[in-house]
Design a protein that fits this description.
This protein has 424 residues and is of the alpha/beta class. It is built from 13 helices and eleven strands. It has helices spanning 21-29, 64-67, 74-79, 112-117, 136-145, 159-168, 171-174, 213-222, 229-253, 262-276, 300-319, 390-402, 406-412; strands spanning 52-58, 68-69, 96-97, 103-104, 121-128, 179-181, 280-285, 326-332, 352-357, 365-366, 388-389. Helix 6 (159-168) runs antiparallel to helix 13 and helix 8 (213-222) packs antiparallel against helix 9 (229-253). The longest helix has 25 residues, at 229-253. It is globular.
Length: 424
Amino acid sequence: MTHSTVPPQPFSPASGFAPTRRHCLQALAALAAPGVLQASLAATPQGATDARFLLVFLRGGYDCASLLVPTASDYYYETRPNIAIARPGSGEGSALPLTADWGLHPALAGSLQPLYAKKQLAFVPFSGTEDLTRSHFDTQDSIELGQPVGGRRDYRSGFLNRLATELGAQPRWHDHLSPLAFTDTLPLVLRGGYDVPNTALAAAGAGKPGIDERQAGLIASMYQGTPLAGPVAEGFQTRDEVARTMQGEMDAASRNALSTKGFEGTARRMARLMQTRYNLGFVDVGGWDTHVGQGNATGALANRFEELGRGLAAFADEMGPAWSRTTVVAISEFGRTFRENGNRGTDHGHGSVMWVLGGGIAGGRVAGEQQALTATTLFQNRDYPVLNDYRGVLGGIFARMYGLNGASLARVFPGAKAKDLRLA
């Protein structure tokens, strides 16, 4: 496999490189403290197209067999004597029943189970990429790029950026598309020709600008009388608007009205921004590499599921009426080994489980191609096989959400065939 790397272009008029609004914003960010808001310079006007999409990337390769529990598989319980989630009805800590074959981790009883019951949550097991490296970094890159496995990689072209390019070319989206990455740096999935800003919404930096008014004035004066004067002013204006929103939440938290800890607080901030201003988003959540002491109904992994579940439920709640027009997909670079290891954990695997949430989706089901999980059906005698290519699943969702035709989908996911699971 040939990897393509592209060095950053110099920010200099002599280079012939014309800076975009995002490049201008990144120049400002270089002067700020880490985690400073890199505010959007592409505002969405009121009355814009209503569909919203958020991609949640679970970095580290989470153990999908603990989340969506294969309760019909005897082999699951034979190979996981210490970390299996008990069958539904087995007492405290048992799986929550979903279908005859699948259960849900009990840590999600108060968050995701109610969404599933309302048909606002679906799972797609046996999903993932054909990338077989089992390397976190390589497979994360492969997922975010969305390009054919085995071909030459273009690190300047992530699949969400290609989606934005396709939507931006449509008359009904041209003036209304407003993407945003809720991350410290622009992720690979949103890199490309379409100008996309990024902002970190971690609680530590919420409501506290990294550049004060005096510094902002000095920076603005540097660009006064140049073509970048307008974008700089817009950037600071948007930063201030977001800061005011965050300050309101912090004030509420001081009265014990809202927690800002962990992903739940971040999710509520994202929802406030996606309600009216941004309609295409990305966030990543780390900490899923559970080689040692994974736990079962309780323990390290259960705690992560509980926090993530609360965050996603909080996002749905905070979106209000806009939730009915929102689709959220959670994905990881790969799953983990079906058998537990000698450290009561799991190692890097292959197939995984995608989560699809939304107020208007056809949820309350486990979708996609499936098979029994036995000693003879595991991939390479160790992992979940990939029966539902993630690019095909997302292509099917994008086709329904945005009305994209085959030619557009082929540009978003080259070489992939859309798989319509009738989720969106």
